[in-house]
Amino acid sequence: MNPEEIITGLTAAQADGLACVICGLDYLRTRGSRSVPVGRSVTGTQVFACVGRCAEAAGVDPTMTGRRAGGGCQ
Ligand SMILES: [Zn+2]
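# zinc ion complex -> structure
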């Protein structure tokens, strides 16, 4: 998976980048966590996964650091 890859089968929140595409964690309601972009939804919005295991599961370099606040399930 790469940051420009289109990811299908997402929920509305995942497709909007508001939830982890791997574990479904709600970033809006989870403080102090971090996420990294892992691809795009079918509508072209950027989608995210939690830094750590989720990013790794999504095929993103696990050493990549978070780019924004919100999200995370380590
Ligand atoms: Zn996650």
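# post-check
The beta strands are 34-40, 46-50, 68-69.
The longest strand covers residues 34-40.
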